[in-house]
Structure formats: C-alpha cells, structure tokens
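Researcher:
Attend to token order:
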Amino acid sequence: WEKTDGIPSVSMLFLSLSVFCHVGMNAAVRAVVRMGIYVGAKVYFIHEGYQGMVDGGDNIKEASWESVSSMLQVGGTVIGSARCKDFRTHEGRLRAALNLVQRGITNLCVIGGDGSLTGANLFREEWSGLLDELVQSGQISEEAAQTHSALHIVGMVGSIDNDFCGTDMTIGTDSALHRIIEVVDAIMTTAQSHQRTFVLEVMGRHCGYLALVSALACGADWVLIPEMPPKDGWEEQMCHKLSESRLRGSRLNIIIVAEGATDRHGNPISSNTVKDLVVRCLGFDTRVTILGHVQRGGTPSAFDRILASRMGVEAVLALLEASPGTPACVVSLCGNQAVRLPLMECVQMTQEVQKAMDEKRFEEAVKLRGRSFENNLNTYKLLSHRKIDSSFNVAVLNVGAPAAGMNAAVRSAVRVGITEGHTLFAVNDGFEGFSKGQIKEIKWGDVGGWTGQGGSLLGTKRTLPAKHIDKIAEQMRIHNINALLVIGGFEAYLGLLELQAARSKHAELCVPMVMVPATVSNNIPGSDLSIGADTALNAITDTCDRIKQSASGTKRRVFIIETMGGYCGYLATVGGLAAGADAAYIYEEPFDIRDLQSNVEHLTEKMKTSIQRGLVLRNENCSENYTTDFIYQLYSEEGKGVFDCRKNVLGHMQQVQTHTHLHTHTNTYHIFVCFVGRVFANTEDSACLLGMRRRALVFQPVIQLKDETDFVHRIPKEQWWLRLRPLMKILAKYKTSYDVSDSGQLEHIVRLRAKDISAI
C-alpha cells in the first residue's frame, strides 16, 4: 500500500474514553493523528470523552501534525477523559450524532475500557435511527443523512488492569507494572535492612493481573488475587511459608494483595487484614504500602509506546478498509502481531469472566482470562512450592554478555527444577568455568532475591566450548550432569552447536540441552524476542527523553544517539519508534550519502516550521565509514543557521540496569517447559533453542536454525521488526510505502464453554 493522491477524503474522530487516564494513551493519539493525516484524512480530537462529543463546540477540534509533537513521553491523555451520564441517554446520543454530522465525521477511533467500547457500539447500532430523527426534526437534510449513512468504529483498549479478553496486553499495563516493580525494588532494600515484612496493595478490583505478574517479577512470598481466592486455612499456610523463609535466612518477606482480593466465601481480604494476621501469628515487624494512583501515572514504558503506536496505525487502516457491513472491531495484540477482533465478542467474553467469578467458578474464570494469565498463575505456583525427591542433575549457566533478566531466568530454572524433583547445579563463568570445575549444587534459598538484580550473578563469559570440550565432558561425567540449560546470547547459540557437534566423540554430551535467548541485541535466530532487550529499550527511551528535555527552551537542536546491538538494528529501530526519532540508521537497511543528505534536508524543513528538537539514532555497526562522529559532523555542517547538534553514545548503560517485569514473567514460563525426561539424547531435537515465534513459544533444534543465520554478522537472515521501520518513518513525516500484507485481519475470539474448559 502506498500513499497516493487518490485516497478518498474521510474524517476521523479520536476519543479517549477511559474513565481513568492511562500512560501510553498519548502514543495512540499521536499515531492515529499522524497516520490519519498521512492517508489524507481530516482528524479531529474530541476533548473530555463522550461528554465532549455530546456538548460539541470547542470540544471537537481538528488536529494537526504539530499538535501531537512531544507527547510520547507524557502520561495520561492530553485530550482529557471524563464520565458522561448524558451519553447513556437517547437524547445525549442524538446530540452527539448531530455534532458529528455537522463536521462530516463518520469514523470513530475510541480508546477505553469495555464499558466505553460497548457504548460506542450501541451508538453505531443506533446511528441510522438517530439520523432519521435528526432529519424529521429538520436539524439535518436528507442529503446529509445519506452522505453520513454509515458510522465505522474501531476500538483500542486502555486499561492498567489488562482485564480485556482478546488481547495479550492493554495500553497502560506495562507502565503500571514498571511503577510497581520500582516501588518493590525500593522497599526491598529497607525491608532487608530492618528484617521487615511488607504487604503491598496494588490495583485490580476485578482482575489480579498486576498483582500476579508483579509477584512473579519480584519473587513475592504470597499473592492474593480475585480470580483465585485462597482455600480455607490459607492463613496458617501463609504464616508457615513466611516462617520457613525466615528460618532459611531470608531477612524480608513480600506479600502482594490485589485490591479486589477475597476469600472463597466472598469476604474481602485487605492489606491491613494481612498485616494484622502476620503480626498476631508471627510477631514480625510488618508494614503496609498502598500504591494507589501512582500506578496510573509517570512516563510510559517503551513497550506501551510501541504497542499504542502500532495499535493506532492499525486502527486507521481498519477504518479505511471498513464497509457499511463491517462490524465494530477492536485492535488487539497477540504475540507480536496486531489483530482485529469483533468488539462485542471480546466484551461478552470479558463479562463472562466476571460472571464466573461472581458464581464462584474460579478455575473457569482463570481459563477465560486467557492462556497467558493461566500460565503466569501456574508458574507462580511452581515457583512457590518445593519437593524433596531428586531425579536428574541439571546444570545451569550463563554465556555471553550480561543481560538484564538473566538472574530471574536462573532463579526460575532452579526453583522449577527443584519443584520437579531435580538437583540443580550452578556453573560459574560460562563454558570456561565449566571446564575448570566451577560447579556447585544450588538450592532453593540460594536464589532468593535474584529477580531484581541486573547482570549475571553466576558470572558469564564469551568463551566458546570448542577449546575446552574434553574438560567440559569430564566435568559432566564427574558431576553426572543429565541435562544442560544455557541462558545467553549469540555465544550460547554457537556453544550449543559446538557441543552438539562434539557428541560423536563424547558420550557425556548426549544429554538434553536447551538454550534460552538472553541478549540486549535481540539477534538470536529462532526467537522474535530475547531476555534483556526490553530493559535495554527502556534504558534507551528514558535516556532519549532526558536528552530531549535538556534542550527544552533552547534553540533548535538535533541529537545523534548511538545504541548497542552489534550488527542488529533492533534497539535503534524500536527504540527510535518509542522515542519518536526522526531517523534510525541500521546495518540491515543500507544507506549512502544521498540518504543522509535527504534526512538532513527533511529535518531542516521540519525545524523551520515548529519542531524544536530532533532525534537521530545510529546502530553501532550500521556502517564502517558513516560513523557516529561523521553523522554528527555532517548534520552540524548542513544544519548551520537552522539547528545545532549534540551527540551521545549510550554504551553499556543499556546492559546494566535491573530487568523489567516483562523479562521475568516471560522467561519463567520458558524455564517451566524446558525440563525433559531423557537421560541419553543424541537426536537433533535434543539440542534446542526455546524462542517466541509470532504467537507461540517454540522448541527448535539449533542445527535447523543454521540456515536462518548470518554467522558473519551474527544476526538472523529474517527479522520481524524490520516491518516497523516504515511506521517509524511515517510518524516522522516521511513519504514512504507501508506494507499492509501483515496487517490484522478480522478474526474471531476463541470461546471456551464450560464443557470445553473441563476437557482442558
């Protein structure tokens, strides 16, 4: 699909209709406005939600390209949001219809929760009847009614609770989890110093997603959520577990409570109730922290910015393709794909979850929440339960450069392995440490508190095993290692290939081997995402926000930022999309001096109008000759009289931060499915990489991934995120083509009936 002058003229209205504002909404506003203008549409803001649509007047204003500048990093929604009783009445909706027709608007892009989206669908269903009434009352003409005979609606879900069925994540959820983890990390230091127990209350009146995932991310001792109330006698079980933790040497306990938590009989369980229980039964020094609306504020995470931007563009495409018979749809995320689902199917499924909870069908409610929620809950149960019997000896090691999330992955491996009855061995300093015998058994309590720490506590090196293969085989024989789990980057991938190749000479290497990708570069074939990449993206986004803010109030300025990634341009591209970059130079998309000159001219033209700050990202190995210094000097020279330049090399700050929650609750499930029951294994599929492919976690033999790999540049031959580059360019006001072959098609949500659920 290419932008042409033949695009039909349409008008679009963007509404932010959530009762509460959520971080990330502004990224969706920006994407809808700029994509709408790009395709030749008039785009209107409606301020204060449905109330603004009913009141009309200055509440409905045409949006311009510049009106959405510098809003990516702003929380909440710049166009406001409010409850509206008037829109619930027929008269209110009639006034809203008149205001839309008067402005020639027949397309609505709505962001909100299930209630707001249901209201939008009702408005659409009543549209023709409302127009008839307006014609009969003489407020509009017959011709106007015919011209605006169909109303098209596309929804996006804004909710920090992630409580909408049909999408893996809603806008605002990731940022809310960031706020929670930041608070937990801060609390854990004081709790450890004073040997305290902390009870944290997080939002989630009807959905426990925030509580569950934050409990996974911080390694909480106990979690209480609405979907799975604790069984009778939970008080004694919780206190016993807290006491056991202290006896093993832990100096703190963390309990997370969703605000809507209840027991099996529907009695509320508040954070103060839990505190009083711990004090009464155990005498521990206990404090309560209620996070409240802190979770709704702050700067959006990189994930939320990208999610909202992709959803906004997909919403515009859905409106362009809509016909009078097209049902209202909602743009959702499934894996790393944007999909379109019938709005009311999703709303009805969401309501079924609440109905199941009200009727105390809790197992069914968990399954209706979706596979992701169910997997998270099962993983938490595994990580909080221990077995004593031993079966196999499993070695765990980190290989390659350190990446945030490695420690959480090791913790998951150790605890799931112990839960399954295995003995876990920790290998220090990668394959080099393996060859030197730096191997020791690691117990349940040894990995306590590892989730919040960056880097690699086991130690990691880039050394490959080929030079030490004899010694590694000997150590595997000495310690009777029956399985190997390698967590790391490209060196880990190469290492597994070398170990597999050496099996013919060393029978000790004929054991199941699994690699979990962990690298900030996200350059491992066989997986769309790697542990560490999300944290690096947030580091880049936060730094770019600060750098741009440093130029606030100054003359026009362009910043040249160098990112890591080797030859892989993932960080530069996706970081550029999240930070609102004007250009991102990467190895995968070759460029020459003419491209650089064109970018400078484009930026100069923008600077002459109203844009005060420009941002250009460069991947560290994108070009041997067009270095960061060269690009900086070129922009400085060519921009004289219009803007000045500054440069910044981000370096290893992208590696050293503590990990985000996304790595924890993703990689815990990775480890959960890693353990296999064979002791002798010499087939291709016994040395696998576990990666995320589009919508699923997939085991892939490393030998089969060789054909997909560019070993010279250490990148996959095909990379999904390259499809996001045109999106970044469009939002930066470049004229470019946008491939819609992979855009979401209308699908149907999978409905789980009671008999289906019982069979699962």
In short: The first strand starts at residue 11 and ends at 16. The two ends are 42 Å apart (CA to CA). The chain has 25 helices and 25 strands. The first helix runs from residue 25 to 38.
